[in-house]
Design brief:
alpha/beta; Rossmann fold; 2 domains
């Protein structure tokens, strides 16, 4: 890995951006060395995470899906913006859109997402946000957690980069479980990004090296 390079992250978010905030804090505290947020992109101009990024002096961009004829056109515009800001790695931090071909092809095996379950359990289309925790509690699972994975054309189906587990308590509601898992997300995501960069970029030009050598 090129130790002198600063790896540039492109953050995609739709809401308050708590995972983005945790990652930015990790960068500021030196826990993510040689890493910087190049741009924060949202599909909602009034997203809390976008406003937070602006308050920190970071570059931002917002895209309105109504201005694009289809998902592919939207993602092509996002990809072009990320590339214009020399983004190396794309981080989904509470992004509520499914990624389509133009963005996947622009950043093959270079898009990470965090999901609030222990994938492959409780993943796939429809398994988002509180719905995941409702299903876990309803099924009386002993454990749940969060997973960082590479984004592919299969929803929640890419190689796993890292996971953290938490017990599901008898007293848990979907909301209390979600809050405890979110705490773990904030710790896991920065760790996973650091490990991904160290492993993936160890051999520049090997665009699928991490897929072949996934941690788990």
């Amino acid at each position: 890995m090129n130790a002198s390079k600063k790896w540039r992250l492109g953050m995609l978010l739709s809401g308050r951006g708590s995972n983005f905030e945790a990652i930015q804090e990790a960068i500021e505290q030196g826990q993510l060395p040689n890493t910087e947020v190049a741009i924060v992109v949202s599909n909602h101009a009034d997203a809390g995470g976008l406003m937070l990024a602006q308050s920190k002096g970071l570059k931002t961009a917002a895209f309105d899906k109504q201005q694009f004829e289809n998902r592919a056109a939207f993602d092509r515009a996002v990809a072009e913006t990320l590339q214009a800001h020399q983004v190396d790695l794309v981080i989904l931090a509470g992004y509520d859109r499914i990624i389509s071909a133009p963005l996947l092809e622009a950043y093959p095996a270079r898009i990470l997402n965090i999901h609030p379950s222990l994938l492959p359990a409780y993943g796939g289309k429809g398994m988002v946000g509180i719905k995941v925790h409702e299903a876990v509690v309803e099924n009386r699972e002993a454990h749940s957690g969060c997973t960082v994975h590479i984004v592919t054309d299969v929803v929640d189906g890419g190689a796993i980069v890292g996971q953290r587990s938490v017990p599901v308590l008898d007293s848990d509601t979907p909301e209390t479980l979600a809050a405890r898992i979110l705490e773990q997300e904030h710790q896991l995501y920065s760790q996973a990004i650091r490990e991904f960069i160290a492993k993936y970029f160890a051999q520049e030009g090997e665009t699928d090296s991490y897929e072949r050598n996934a941690l788990v």
